[in-house]
Task: structure prediction
Amino acid sequence: MNANFSECNDDRSLLLASGKKSEESVLTYEPWNRFRRRVWLTALFFAGAVLYAARTVMPVCIVSISHQYNWNKTDTGTVLSSFFWGYATTQVIGGYMADRFGAETMISGAVVGWSVLTLITPLIIQASSQSFVRSNAIICRVLVGCLQGFYYPSLSSLLSRRVLPADRAFSFSFASSGSHFGTMLTGIVGSLLLDYVGWAYSFYCIGILGMAWVGLIHYHLIDESHSLRLSNSKKDLTEEVGKEFPGIPIKVPWMKLFRAVPFWAVIFGQFCGTWTFFILLSWLPTYFQETFPEAKGWVFNVVPWAVSLPCQWFSGWLSDKMIVKGYSTTFVRKFIQSISCCGAGFFLFFMSYMSSYESALACMTTAIAFCAFHHSGISVNVQDIAPDYAGSVYGLVNTAGAIPGFVGVYIAGYLLESWRSWSVVFNMTSAVCLTGCIAFTMFGTGQRII
Result:
């Protein structure tokens, strides 16, 4: 099969430059063999790590920054949520561009952008006058969010074209599990730098790591990744490659998708799942620092994410194993998502009754571990219902998933300022999580829609 996929970058350039709208011309990517899949998944794992390191460095440092500049809980919630204002705006365009022009280039370009912005954020904040500190911090985080909005739709697009359906759940889970490693990295390095040299150095370190990743990936993988083939017809493509590896489509049939109830189940389920995750991601450091001030930051910022890492790998392995054993894709996606939502919702509810640091840490760790199963449920479901348009459709789904980042995180800050109670936040989050589970279990599907 590999012999049939010689590099045809010139043909690709001619097709893209011609601007033809014909449905008969498609571009296909060469499927990864086992070795190359492992190399790329390892690279994508660390891409997810630098992404979440840049995303979580602000929550880790926010208490120190808030004290330095006298921000209240509402101000803090606004700064934390501002990342998601930008994150929600670029999901669809990021997925479309990845489907159309290639996911590898989109990913590396986005990493460069958010790494540079992370690096210069402390410089901008410290150079600002007191009246502009908060607004400039918000602008920096919005721009970082805009660039990170390209990543997950591009990842979904890349894996839908390079990985067989029976391997996609583990591949997506493994690649996206780098987020936990990145959060853990920020928890260790960021907390230590915060304690000994100041919050600004956490941003500097994370920005440099991101740019180092881009240098390595370009040197070793990107230049070799554009193995493309121009096919004259979709029929020829199906016969030679199979439906598992779609070409770059001309137009997404949005209306057909919008009329499908299972698609809206994915949208709502993603909204509820990310509501839970983003509130925990953004407010966890503040909760432990305020409730248990003697606790070590490198412990509570690390332990939950260290535990969730193998849990996410296990969920991907279990999902693929069940499909290979003959369970339907629909059943598997609903089963895995139910584990995620019910487990996280249950332990978040009991967070209100935890009085000791050890019990609170154990309960929070277990809730976040169950959240990790989401990546083998709804997150990968987009590749089931729209394999030919995974980047564009995932972009739209993740736009809904980004809304809790600014709405939910801000509401949590407002509730904390008004009620002075973490129980209100945990109970609300638990209810939202369980509601999403019910909707996806009733109306979701693992069958192709478009």
Q: What stands out?
A: Confidence is low (pLDDT under 50) at residues 1-27, 226-245. The beta strands are 26-29, 228-231. The radius of gyration is 22 Å.
